[in-house]
Amino acid sequence: MRIFCLAFSIQFTFCYCQYFSGPDPTWNIRSKNEMKSKDFWFSDAQSTLYEKLSMQPNQYQAKNIIFFLGDGMSVPTVTAGRIYDGQQRGIIGERNRLEFEKFPYVGLSKTYCVDKQVSDSACTASAYLTGVKANYETIGVSADVKRNDCSGAKLPQNQLSSIAAWAMRGHKSTGLVTTTRVTHASPAGVYAHTSNRDFESDFDVHDLGHDPNNCPDIAQQLLDEVGQGLRVVLGGGTKKFLPNTMRDVYGNLGQRLDGRNLIEEWQRSKFGNARVVFNRTDLLRNDARYTDYLLGLFNTSHLAYNLDDSIDTPSLEEMTEAAIEVLSQDPAGYFLFVEGGRIDHAHHETKAKKALDETVQFSNAVRKARQLTNRWDTLIVVTADHGHTMTINGYADINNNITGFNSELSDVDNLPYATLSYANGPNYKKFYKVSGNEVDRVDLRTLNIGHKKARYPHGVPMSEETHGGGDVAVYANGPWAHLFSGVYEQNTIPHLMGFAACIGPGITYCNLRPNKTTSPIVD
Ligand SMILES: *[C@@H]1O[C@H](CO)[C@@H](O)[C@H](O)[C@H]1NC(C)=O
Ligand SMILES: *[C@@H]1O[C@H](CO)[C@@H](O)[C@H](O)[C@H]1NC(C)=O
Ligand SMILES: *[C@@H]1O[C@H](CO)[C@@H](O)[C@H](O)[C@H]1NC(C)=O
Ligand SMILES: *[C@@H]1O[C@H](CO)[C@@H](O)[C@H](O)[C@H]1NC(C)=O
Ligand SMILES: [Zn+2]
């Protein structure tokens, strides 16, 4: 039994508190039989109702903001991810909840960009980090800048400032964590301004036919202004930071043409104790009390998928914990960006099982952040930049293996199909046999569906599966989380976060009311 408190407040003069004892919700169902009882569903819904009645808006000032971005984490990815996670843990997957699905407030964000109906991770990063929508494949610059417009991207009036810059101006600490290269589109949104997301190193700029002197690459911007202020940077991508004459600790050559070793420059440019780590052992051994700045690069390129082999690589959860430990030394609070960046990559490869597994990893990182913070002073927002074309095909039986075959056969060709499939993708010929005018589906039983590396079936042939244009969910917990409900443009998100934490150029909680710090109540 749980006790719920229902409080009515009429013009702040009258407070009435009544205790209801609601039934406990049962999430960890192991047998389908439990679901057959009408009492189960009735009391389940009643318990949700009690929970809602006891909810009160949290109107304290957010000291800390942790923004979690599941790259490409569409709503069907969340649904399938929760089923996958539940099935791995031996419970009925459909009943399971990922960590952020326990948050009290959810909204929907519209993800299109200024010039595209379906967006990419670059223009969406501008939206959810700077509060302004922009053009496809550009980062941190307004829509006056077209793709590859190097001169336009350098003009101060076209550069957008990210919520990390707002937080720095508000004297908070800032950091970023990702499973991709730290120069990849989403994390670059925290600190970079560029007319092409692919300008990650000066080699890339040159390779794409532009002059690196007129077009500063993303890696070098980690040493400019906002990048320089970041106290924690954890992810992958050593090759973007090292000269092409030098090998990284994993034995791979760097990429830079300008001969700069940006890792060493980063360390030398810091006042205070700046630590650089290249593996999990050193990350976990790091003592946050003696760390003013922390740079961790754990792969030459992106971090390996959790399901794949790697050497001494930290999980997203471990990196999130390390980042919070450093940033929470700051009594003024912090802004932290955490990206589960490889959900998207797995989808592009139509490797649905990996996409779901990365989603579960992402959820584990959210759980760790919740354990290390409290909801009275820390606003946690979880969302995706854009969707994907993966769908959950009907009508498998309850608790049917989500990564396997549907329990039904096609009623047209009598062949099995996978519950998960994509609207488009690579390897068309693997799934369809063409003879003359006839197109037949391949019998999936001859393929290894369910293996981590298996590609899932798809429709339209493409070199890689595309993003999807559906709205994505925004889950919020902590101060002003109730602002995140409803359907709104993606670029609204940093405005709401800035309001809650009293940072940024827009209206904030502190402009509206006298300053109020955190509650004495601890979660
Ligand atoms: C981790 O990195 C440190 C410093 O670069 C190195 O001395 C150590 O051997 C590495 N550990 C492993 C397991 O590779
Ligand atoms: C880096 O990632 C690649 C590709 O996923 C993987 O094969 C390799 O083992 C990783 N390196 C380390 C040091 O973990
Ligand atoms: C689901 O099916 C796939 C392949 O058929 C298999 O590899 C996987 O282990 C199954 N998962 C569970 C939880 O049974
Ligand atoms: C509230 O805090 C902000 C930022 O710290 C400060 O600029 C402002 O003067 C404060 N307002 C009041 C009423 O104390
Ligand atoms: Zn993508």
From TrEMBL:
Enzyme Commission number, as recorded: 3.1.3.1
Report which superkingdom the organism of origin falls in: Eukaryota
CDD domains on file = ALP (cd16012)
- Location, primary (coarse class): membrane
The record lists Mg(2+) as bound by D71, H184, S186, E339, D344
Q: How is the cofactor bound?
A: Binds 1 Mg(2+) ion.
InterPro entries registered for this protein in UniProt = Alkaline_phosphatase, Alkaline_phosphatase_core_sf
Subcellular localization, per the record? Answer: Cell membrane
Membrane topology according to the record:
Lipid-anchor; GPI-anchor
Q: Which interval of the chain is the signal sequence? A: 1-17
**Keyword annotations from UniProtKB, A to Z:** Cell membrane, Glycoprotein, GPI-anchor, Hydrolase, Lipoprotein, Magnesium, Membrane, Metal-binding, Signal, Zinc
| Molecular functions per Gene Ontology | alkaline phosphatase activity; metal ion binding
Gene3D superfamilies listed in its UniProt record: Alkaline Phosphatase, subunit A (3.40.720.10)
Query: Per its UniProt record, what SMART domains does this chain match?
Result: alkPPc (SM00098)
* Cofactor or coenzyme needed: Mg(2+); Zn(2+)
Q: Where is the active site?
A: S121
Which family, according to UniProt? Belongs to the alkaline phosphatase family.
The name of this protein is alkaline phosphatase
The taxonomic lineage of its organism, from the top, reads:
Eukaryota, Metazoa, Ecdysozoa, Arthropoda, Hexapoda
